[in-house]
Amino acid sequence: MEPNPHILKHHHITLNVGVAQDDYDFHTKILGLKSVKKTALYDGDEPIYHLYYGNDFGEESTLITCFPMRQSGRKATRGTGQIKTLALSVPASSLSFWERHLRQHGHDVKRSERFGEALLSLAHPCGIQYELVAIDDDDRMPYSNGIIPAEFGIRGTHGITVSVRDLEMSDEFMQVGWSGKNRRTDGAFTRYEVGAGGTGTIIEFEHEPDVPQGSWAYGEGVTHHCAFQVADLDVQKNVKFRLEGLGYTDTSDRKDRGYFDSVYVRTPGGALFEATVSKPQGFLVDEPYERLGSELQIPPVFQSRKDSIKSHLEPLLY
């Protein structure tokens, strides 16, 4: 069977982080991303922030979104069956700048290379692993508020790394169910690209047969899921039907997330993927561009509790 042709590129990646202020400062002050949206987690009845960071308009494949879980007291267990690393694209000429900048702000940084790409490894304050990967041909426009020079700014996502105990089932899923192509290996890593390929489309699997299973529930310290853009709701429906027809029946119904519509699938290796369609107005649906990301937006499902939610959420200075 031919690969599913409809998975285009990353849309966003969502992390379960720790303290809201630590997360906000890391993404906006250290990495220099824009606060695109401040809202709340839609699932469950306990209000938790949902913070979005990206480029100026929060375009697809530039977005990192975070659930600060410290307030809930819920901790996660890192392990296999999870997305373990988020890689971001930066200009190749900027790598020395980023190394100095990160060290000056107290981050341990390690230089290495994978698949012929130079990269810097660092950690989010909650411990989730990040990489800044040197890319020469990324034309996505970075956000610049003066903290990071525009010519050195983060362009968007580059790839994700999924830890798996067994690669065979993930390989089948990627090649048949999720548009994976250009399969390559580098030691324990197997890389695929979706859509047109290149930065912003990459999924890597790291074979770690001796690593214990990690947790999947909401909890501080692990990645929750990676979302991938599909063209429209009809395509999204067809992606869901195709996955179910292949036997990947741990696939959700469509969920309205306010700024996009989502269908989730639990992949054979354990990581949660999402097929996503942006709303026509995107993040401008509830605030104008001039104030994008500046105020807390309460999801419609919580509007009746707006005041109590605002008082419950941990303070956030921005």
TrEMBL record:
<dbReference type="InterPro" id="IPR037523">
    <property type="entry name" value="VOC_core"/>
</dbReference>
<dbReference type="InterPro" id="IPR052537">
    <property type="entry name" value="Extradiol_RC_dioxygenase"/>
</dbReference>
<protein>
    <submittedName>
        <fullName>VOC family protein</fullName>
    </submittedName>
</protein>
<feature type="domain" description="VOC">
    <location>
        <begin position="9"/>
        <end position="135"/>
    </location>
</feature>
<dbReference type="InterPro" id="IPR029068">
    <property type="entry name" value="Glyas_Bleomycin-R_OHBP_Dase"/>
</dbReference>
<feature type="domain" description="VOC">
    <location>
        <begin position="156"/>
        <end position="278"/>
    </location>
</feature>
